[in-house]
Each structure stands twice: as structure tokens, then as C-alpha cells.
Amino acid sequence: MEEDIDVTSHTEGLNGLSHECKPLDEITNGHSNHKPVMNGLIIGHNVKDHTNGSAPLRSLPISALKQNGLLQTLAAGGDQPKPTEENVELEKARQEWDALENVQPALTEDSTPTPLISFNEALQYFQTTDLGDLLKNIQPTIRRTGLAAITHFLFGPPRLHRELLEERDLVFAIAQCPVDNSQTVHMRVLQTIYKRLIGSRLDCPRYGAHWENIGFQGTDPATDLRGTGFLGLMHTLYFVMDPETLPLARDIYKLSQHPTQNFPFSVMSINMTRIALQVLREEALSKECNRRQQVVGVLNEFYVATYLHLYQLWKTQQKTIADSGFVLKEVELFAKKNPKQMLRRLEVFLKERRAGGIPRGTSSDPQAQQPSPSLGERAARAGAGQGSKGREMHFTGVCDLPPDMEGEARLI
């Protein structure tokens, strides 16, 4: 017969004291007769369990102990809460936890959304602000000398009427104005642009990666405004706040999020402002400004017309970010040579949209597009000469395009 093995187990009891169990072979009729011993006391059905004189131990779920901190209480020898108190605390904790799933962000008095600002309100701010220091550094026209000056005088566009010179100079002064965080109007312009494009009613932080969602290149939109200053934001503000042009702005923004045809919306918009400024500086818009007796309104529409031209070319010819340098140069050349045609195209586009039809030049179907012959031929030649377009390419910056035309001044 095998020798019985006397097994005695020692376990670490509560309060760091030894907990001794008697041999495991004392079983009668399938029931164990051994009595666990704790600190020298035999724990039985009719014997209360005391540990160093503390309160009796009761059976509790381990989850309850964790949630209510009872493990620490027992280890310290403190009194244990009554079961009724524990159940009340557990129920309260469950209710608080369940309530977390239903928490919704609430607007407090301090987080009231910044009101949207219209283009006219923002323009009025600049009209009533002292921009004397900025006006000293503007270059509203191209400086020509010698034969170029004579040719421009004899065969160039008409000069801007004298009564419009102050309005023109204001435009170029705004184009030199940087973003000022201390100016409420500046911050409202930024917030309005973001909200109108994203469709949000809540303000966004001044800095952050969310600005990249609307096409800025970093966490601070101000760093992308070189060459156009605050005028770059003013044009975008006009684009998204005018009821007639807002649908077009959102169409362009949607295309900028396309999986393969994506481009940075805001950086591209700043480039459209840069082109519009250069056309104004070269006096190609003077005739239209004289006819309408205004400068700001004509420049706003020309900016939109330029962005529309790029949008139609980009969408219908399946352009990608790899084509950005060529597309920008193509748009700039076409805008300088055909300012009247650009404005006319915008007028027709908006009229067709008001009528409920699909404006020409916005369908991606090659059979539906009807670009001008010269534009189509140049685009086809350039498309054939492009290399691999799948590789990542750095987007052409606002002032990265080198001037290649005689008399073209460096952008402000």
C-alpha cells in the first residue's frame, strides 16, 4: 500500500499572516473534515472569523473590492462598509459610467461660436484702419523703361481712372498685411472660411492639423500667405460667403479631396489670388474696372473666374498634383491674355447654374468638355510629356513659379 503523504499548505493570509490548512486526506463520506486554521484559530461554521481583532470577513466580489477600494481598507485593518452601503455605491458608480456614453459637448458662455463675418464687413475694417506704413511699400503697376514703356503707352491697356487709384492701392496694401492674432476681424475671417468649407458651426483652434483639412500646408495658415498677405484670405472669404459662388467653392473643395485628383484647396486659392494681383498690376483689368467704376468687385470676380478655369481644366483633363506646376502656369498665361473672356465664362457659368443645368466644363466626361482649342492642344502636349504621375511631388508654392515674361515684377 502506498504511503500516505501528509500535505500541509501554507498560504499568505490577509494582513500578511500565515494561513495554514490541515492535511487534505481527512475526508469522510466525500466531505472534508479539515478545518482551515488562520492565526491559530480554527474557522468553522459556528465560529466567527477574526483577524487581529478586526471586523468579520464577508464574501465580496473582487470587482466590488476593486471599485470601492476595499482591498486597501482590509489590508489596513479598517472597518468594512456594510453590504447595503456597498450596493448603493456600486449602483451609483454604474449610473455614472453609463452616463459617460451619453455625454455631448455643450457650448458654454465662454465657448460661444464666433459669428461669421461677411466680405463687406471685413473690407470695411481695412478701409477704416490706418495702412499708411503698408501703402509706402506697394507696387501697384509694372515699372517700365525705355522702349517697353513707350510700347505700353501706345499699345497697352488703358490707364486706371484717377478716382479708382485709392481703391486699387488699398487692395495692394491688404496684400501686404499679415495675419494678426490680436485683431478680432482677422480671427473671424479664418473661422468663417473654415466653418463654411467644413460645414461646422463650432470654432476651431488657431493652430493645429485641422487647417490641413482645408488645404493649408501646415498648422498655421499665416505661413502660406507669402506673396498675397491677408488678401489671400479675403478672396477665399468672398468665395465662401457669396451665395452665388459658395456652391462652386464647395465643388472645388470636394475635388480637392479626391483620392487621385486631390490638391491643397487653400494653397491653390492663394495662387489664384497671386495671379489676379499680377493681372491687376499689369493693368489688364483696368478697362473693366473703369467700366464698372470699381476695383475690389472686379478683382473678386476675376479671382473666382481664375479658380473656375483651373477647376474645369483640372477636373476634365484628370489632372493630379504632379501636374500642378504646369497647370498653374497655363492658368496664369491664359488669365493675363484673356481677362475679359475669363470674366465672361464666370458669368455664363453662374447663369447656367442658376437655371438648374450642369454648367459647361464641369463634367469629367471627355465628350462633354469643350475647352478652347489652344488650351486643349497645349494641355494635350503637356500631358503626353509628363513622366510618372504616381510618385509624390511637392506642391508648387505661392512664390515658387519663376517669372519669365518681360517686365513682370516680383510678387509682394
TrEMBL record:
InterPro entries: ELMO_dom, ELMO_domain-containing. Coiled coil: none annotated. Residues 185-339 form the ELMO domain. Pfam families: ELMO_CED12. Residues 356-402 are annotated as: Disordered. Signal peptide: none annotated. PANTHER family: ELMO DOMAIN-CONTAINING PROTEIN 3, ENGULFMENT AND CELL MOTILITY. This is ELMO domain containing 3. It comes from Seriola lalandi dorsalis. The lineage of its organism: Eukaryota, Metazoa, Chordata, Craniata, Vertebrata.
